[in-house]
């Protein structure tokens, strides 16, 4: 499978809305090791002027990953997601994500190239709330490694 550079500029239809729940935020904050009370305690969030618990800044990737699963056909663009390294990510927030949000993601391929034998795919994801208001734009770069480079299913290097 060869990465198709003509896929750059492809825009995908909005993914299904993602309902942000406080329990999901709590689990994510725990997984990334961030004990900030604003992620788990509604009173702490209200004390900072928010109506619900906030999500950690990188939580938007959870939403984007689900959207990618919904709208992407990797074969169509020639990108092998079997062994992927997350190369880069940037977040441009208008406001924090909070429990109760229903986020809709639209995706666009902004780059596709082969560099030193590895396929590099760049994406832009725009997340909006149920009213269509911008919440965050995420710019991401993924590097696909083939099975020989990424190791086998047991993690052994081949």
How would you sum up this structure, described in words?
- There is one protein chain.
- This protein is an alpha+beta fold and 158 residues long.
- The chain is built from 5 helices and 5 strands, in the order βααααββββα.
- The chain has helices spanning 22-31, 42-47, 60-71, 74-77, 147-150; strands at 18-19, 83-93, 102-115, 118-128, 134-145.
- The chain has a 5-stranded antiparallel β-sheet with strand order 1-3-4-5-2.
- A hairpin with a 2-residue loop joins strand 3 and strand 4.
- The protein is elongated, with a radius of gyration of 17 Å.
Mean pLDDT: 90
Strand order within the widest sheet? 1-3-4-5-2
* Molecular shape: elongated
Find the structural class using helix and strand composition: alpha+beta
Radius of gyration: 17 Å
Provide a count of the helices. 5
Major beta-sheet overview: 5 strands, antiparallel
Work out the helicity level: 10-25%
- Distance, first to last CA: 20 Å
Uncertain stretches: 150-158
Number of strands: 5
Strand content: 25-35%
Question: Helix and strand succession?
Answer: EHHHHEEEEH
């Amino acid at each position: 499978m060869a990465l198709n550079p003509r896929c750059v500029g492809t825009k995908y239809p909005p993914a299904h809305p993602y309902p942000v729940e406080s329990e999901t935020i709590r689990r994510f904050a725990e997984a990334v090791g961030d004990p900030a009370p604003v992620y788990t305690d509604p009173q702490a969030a209200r004390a900072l002027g928010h109506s619900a618990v906030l999500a950690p800044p990188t939580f938007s990737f959870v939403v984007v990953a689900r959207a990618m699963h919904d709208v992407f056909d990797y074969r169509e663009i020639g990108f092998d997601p079997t062994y992927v390294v997350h190369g880069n990510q940037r977040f441009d927030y208008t406001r924090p994500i909070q429990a109760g949000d229903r986020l809709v993601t639209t995706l666009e391929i902004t780059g596709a190239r082969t560099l030193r034998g590895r396929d590099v795919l760049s994406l832009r994801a725009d997340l909006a709330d149920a009213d269509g208001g911008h919440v965050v734009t995420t710019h991401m770069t993924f590097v696909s490694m083939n099975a020989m480079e990424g190791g086998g299913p047991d993690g052994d290097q081949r």
